[in-house]
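Each record in this resource describes a single protein on a pair of labelled lines. With that in mind, the following record should read easily:

===
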Amino acid sequence: MSTLQDVAREAGVSSATVSRVLNNTGKVSAATRRRVEEAIARLGYRPSRVARRLRVQRGRSHILGLMIPDIQNPFFSDVARGVEDFAYDHDYAVILCSSDEDPRKQSFYLNIMRAESVDGVILPPIPGEQDLLRELAEREGLPIVCLDRRADDLALDTVVVDNRRGAFEAVDLLLRLGHRRIGFITGLPGLSTTRERFEGYLVAFEAHALPVPHHLIREGDSRYESGREQAEALLALPVPPTALFVGNNLMTLGALEALHRRRLPVPEAISIIGFDDFPWASSLNPPLTTVRQPGYAMGRRAAELLLRRIAQPGRPAERIICEPELVPRASCAPPPPGPGDSNLPL
């Protein structure tokens, strides 16, 4: 196992210089820092846990915790990249964990992060975790930034998208095309994102002075399988919807599988819009209309807020609301003639 002295010899510097690079203290030139970092990488040097804890006791660990619901979700992959890039630019490392929307798993990882002395945490809150977040933020003073979702009862820094606007614009597009029977597959119950997108769906119907088809609303859980299952349930109705609005990207892919299984051509037989864009949405056949969230930018803003909170723990909580973008592609068209078209009552 390599030692600090081995790194110093490899880099041609003193042990004190290596220590300054590791602790991010004192003046070290960019060239020297790079030489030390390259030596660390070549030797695979890892500071001992005891030594790191001693450094933490004297100051900061320069490690941030990032909790996301699902690393396979392209939106959260973009978010993670934004957090990591901003953190790296400011000499911070990031510990990444996936909660799988499980409160027990999130509590487990939060306690691990606390034990590892992270300087702060970025996470999308999960229902039922308010007490732990309150304990960490208010009693222990751990800097926390809520990302993508709000923690309504806590005064925490927050970075979210305008979910109501994004959902409104998607449903408004379908209504203007003549659709009235618009099925909606919501996200996981209890999340602020689910609530706000549902509100946007309702407001769009109200803006057109049209009754809301409540029987066409199905509750999903933000995962692929629930998108497929709930789309199947909607398509099995005696008079199925002529359009689908789906609450996130993974469920949208599941809904598309349901349409494919039934050999329903998009948009000739049914239109579909998904909340959340993803890299291959434009490569689908037909290209998918989506509501795009600026995931990478949201990740960077969240990391920026967290570092600001670390430096200024007493400042008021800040809320950043990012704008969504409706991305029209080829998956939407006027409804086909028949039950549920724009000339018939719901």
Q: What stands out?
A: The domain at 163-292 is CATH 3.40.50.2300 (Rossmann fold). DSSP finds twelve helices and twelve strands in the chain. The CA atoms of residues 9 and 84 lie 30 Å apart. Confidence is low (pLDDT under 50) at residues 342-346.
